């Protein structure tokens, strides 16, 4: 078992180095804000389910019209942290959102995790993969090796592999007050995205506001409150899903 853990860490470190040091930026463990998670679960807008594979968020039963979203958490961030930021989208749209758990809380250790998630929901034909920070880099790596995806969403993240030749709807959302991400590396990596990619900057938003886990070491100070940041994220998600549906 120790040998397996060491092997996983070696793979992760190599991948993180290739991804521009995003793991170093996330090198502290962050727990979900329990009050915010409880508030979502206590409401009537969405249903949150959890098991040893992760968390699902939806507002109704899965049908053939449902869009599936697999969302990879940031490195060492509790996957539960993304329930408050993703639930508003599920409340507005017919989507099933799955936030998986990963070995050592590192999505980069299992970039193909979306395959098993998708296999669990054979009724869903349309799938988008996304992620936050290093989770976004892992999602991009998954997209690079998967031909039957309908979209890719990056939150405070960038692609360290070239998918510029893909005809894949892609949304990259950055925060203007994010001081965790390497902004120069993110701008340089935009050339790795498909030509049709949409890049949005949310003014005043920080790295940690893409989740609900409190302040992050090395991050900037938010100039917008969490509710406003989440409203902007939901708006961009909805615009993006409209694009995805138009292509289907």
Number of helices: 8
Radius of gyration: 17 Å
Name of the CATH superfamily: Alpha/Beta hydrolase fold, catalytic domain
The CATH level-2 architecture is identified as 3-Layer(aba) Sandwich
Q: How does the helix and strand content classify structurally?
A: alpha/beta
Number of strands: 8
CATH topology: Rossmann fold
The main pleated sheet reads as: 8 strands, mixed
Q: Which stretches are poorly predicted, pLDDT < 50 over at least 5 residues?
A: 1-11, 16-22
The count of domains is 1
What's the pLDDT, averaged over the residues?
Answer: 91
Distance N terminus to C terminus?
44 Å
Side-by-side strand order of the widest sheet: 1-2-4-3-5-6-7-8
**What share of residues is helical?**
25-40%
Shape: globular
Indicate the proportion of strand residues. Answer: 15-25%
Task: List key phrases describing it.
248 residues, alpha/beta, Rossmann fold, 8-stranded mixed beta sheet, 8 helices, 8 strands, 35% helix
What report would you give on this structure?
The chain is α/β, with parallel strands linked by helices. The chain has one domain: Rossmann fold (3-Layer(aba) Sandwich). 35% of the residues lie in helices and 18% in strands. The chain is built from 8 helices and 8 strands. The protein has helices at residues 2-18, 22-25, 34-42, 83-92, 113-119, 134-144, 183-188, 226-247; strands at 47-51, 54-58, 67-72, 95-100, 126-132, 151-155, 170-175, 198-202. The chain has an 8-stranded mixed sheet, sandwiched between helices. The chain is globular, with a radius of gyration of 17 Å.
